[in-house]
Amino acid sequence: MLTIELRPLYHRGKEQIAIHAPFEKEINLAIRRLPGVRWSETHKVWYMSWGKPSYEQIIAALNSLAQLDTRLLKAYLEKRHDVKQTLVPVRPVGSDHVGFKPAFARKLPAHTATWQLSRDNLAALNRFVEQLKLKAYSINTLRTYRGEFLQLLQVLKQKPVNALTPNELRRYMVYCMEKEGLSANTANSRLNALKFYFEQVLGREKFFFEIPRPKKPLLLPKVLGQEELSRLFRALTNKKHKAMLFTAYSAGLRVSEVVALKLKHIDSDRMQIRVEQAKGKKDRYVNLSPVLLDILRSYVRGYRPKPVEYLFESERTKTAYPTKTIQRIFQLAKERAGIRKEVGIHSLRHSFATHLLEKGTDIRYIKELLGHFDIRTTERYLHVSKRALVNVINPLDDLYRNGKVEW
Asked: Are residues 242 and 154 in the same domain?
């Protein structure tokens, strides 16, 4: 009996089902009659669109004419499922639904780095992602850790990751620092991901005590002065855009926290803003400025269409405003205001903390307002604040005042 083989095919940017059949009149005629079937001159094969309906139509039309070999198709589907399991789940802002990225939206499974992994290392990646999900790590952490662990698996090729020794991992980190030129922050992130796999997934204790961590550089927050802020806010004419940036500065919010704000989070009775499930899955309250409350009321009353659920809703989707759009709004306002500092919208949060510190606010209170876990993160603003420096006389000024130098 003749054999027809069904194979996966990547053609015209999509997955297809290829029909490899012997040249036989009755079979050829049956294939041509399949709805939506096409001939690929490039691959010299008949094909149909990917999916169960096409598969069932092929089986129904050809099963009585030849023996159908679907082994390659099934093997592809099994591996496709394994690769898909490693994708990072996403929760769109404003949705209670947790789903996966559109499967292989840009690349087909066989064109991804994950597909190229050995069977053992693909299984290891699956266990790694599964453990992160079970421990309810944030989506951002999940995505970062998966990417860093995948970097190691790609280097290993066929060598099983579970067989690595501490010395081999040490040499790998040296390779990352020297050949890949990793920054201290990225190197620490990669170490965290590897530490999680070997200690949390495989249960190996103190697996990384021999590998030193790169010292992170002390990067001071970039802050806008009050005159710059005044110019920035005056550069905005759209009430909604102005309300967004006022909210970010007045409450010291991250841009992700601004877009997640709902109308119900603005508590005018207690003069508080509730920030829900922010970084580290942590809720907190911040003060609601009377000026900001007036600004928000004016915006909500006058803006069309009025927001229904989110404080700042997308007019097109009726969901939370995209963070990238707010970032662009900030950059345009900065350009119009003639501010040349290389700062992003996060500088409004830094400015909020620094200005509070300069006005004498206790740093422990600022820590709570910002939602920091560690006081050392907040203490960075001590290096930026000028409150303690205003009474310090510069030695050059002292020389000039005493007539020791001339200009």
From this structure: no
Active-site residue, from 20, 79, 204, 279: 279
Q: Give the list of residues 6+ apart from residue 268 with CB closer than 8 angstroms, or none.
A: 288, 293
Q: Which of 254, 350, 355, 367 is catalytic?
A: 254
Among the listed residues 362, 352, 364, the one whose alpha carbon sits nearest the alpha carbon of residue 252: 352
Position 102 pLDDT exceeds 80: no
| Most confident listed range (35-44, 107-116, 203-212) | 35-44
Question: Catalytic residue at 328?
Answer: no
Hey, which residues does 299 pair with through a beta bridge? none
Do strands 99-100 and 266-267 pair parallel, antiparallel, or not at all (unpaired)? Answer: unpaired
| Residue 197 in domain | yes
Does 49 share its domain with 100?
A: no
Residue pair 211/169 in contact by the 8 Å Cβ criterion: yes
Catalytic residue among 143, 262, 265, 346: 346
- Active site (annotated) includes residue 270: no
CATH number of the domain enclosing 301 = 1.10.443.10
Write down the catalytic residue from 7, 146, 349, 350: 349
Catalytic hit among 241, 242, 355, 372: 372
Q: Determine whether 372 is an active site residue.
A: yes
Q: d(Cα 312, Cα 300) in Å, to the nearest integer?
A: 9
Q: How many CB atoms lie within 10 A of CB 210?
A: 10
Our answer to whether residue 349 is catalytic in this structure is yes
Q: Let me know the angle formed at the C-alpha of 343 by 356 and 322, rounded to the nearest 5 degrees.
A: 95
pTM here?
0.71
387 domain residue, yes or no: no
Q: What pLDDT band is residue 277 in, cutting at 50, 70 and 90?
A: confident
Q: Do residues 55 and 61 make contact, with C-beta atoms less than 8 angstroms apart? A: no
CB-CB contact of 17 with 48 (8 Å): yes
- Omega prior to 109 cis, within 30 of 0: no
Burial class (CB in 10 A: 0-12, 13-18, 19+), 405: exposed
**Annotation marks residue 254 as catalytic:** yes
Whether residue 346 lies in the annotated active site: yes
The domain of 308 spans 226-382
Both tokens assigned to 219:
């990067």
Residue 150 lies in a domain: yes
Q: Tell me how many domains the chain contains.
A: 3
Output the pLDDT for position 395.
61
Calculate the alpha carbon distances from 405 to 395, 397, 398, 399, 400 in Å.
11, 9, 10, 6, 5
Q: Which helix (H) or strand (E) holds 204?
A: none
